[in-house]
Amino acid sequence: MKNIKNIPPIIIESKCITSTLDYKWNDRVIEKLLDPLQTNEELEITLNRLNQKASLALAAALLEWVYWRFKKHTILFDDLMQRIESLWCSIENHENTKPLIFDPNLKYLAYGYVKGPIWVALVHVKMIDMKYRKGSDLLQSELVGLVLLVRHITPKKKAFDSWFMNSLFELTSLFPLENHQTKHSEMTPYDFTTEPVICREFFFNPNFKYSDATSRLALREFISNIDLIKNKFCLAKKELATA
Hints:
mainly alpha, 10 helices
């Protein structure tokens, strides 16, 4: 819990902690969030400019928005925290983590007012994690639904929009996808292992000044604080890739 004990200022500003849960949640909303690509082409195109590690980092940051929005309302917050930690650990070295197993067939959970948004988030995160491990160039498209979900459940959407647009601008500038015209598959996966790492502070610490060195240091500190006994998705078998 040491890694995610302080609420980021932007999430406080967004009223995710103090506001009541007053978003719409019905069949139509669920389907739009699970299958958002047809009506969000511009967002998908922009996200497809990000490299793999930046995409996974954005997924971790977005899942943390979900974590804080529902922390007071569910017993699932510990599981969410472990998945967030695992995503950051995978950015450093995916061989130090297990796949983020989640059964998407339990769709009845999607209709719960609290469990529903969490279920949708975990469906997207599972697919993002799986495609990251496979080196798939379809990873970025899976982010669209997660972005829309977080915006939907955030009380002050202008705060989220500002954070997201600023983050996206910095990400596309610093972490562009190389050779984005090349199509990849399981037979010819994209090699993301040489991409620069990115840390949680990049998204949530307004005083953080990015450089490769500061990002590596912050990420390694984050990983060092993970409780490897409690976290069921993180391992301690491989050397740190940034060592």
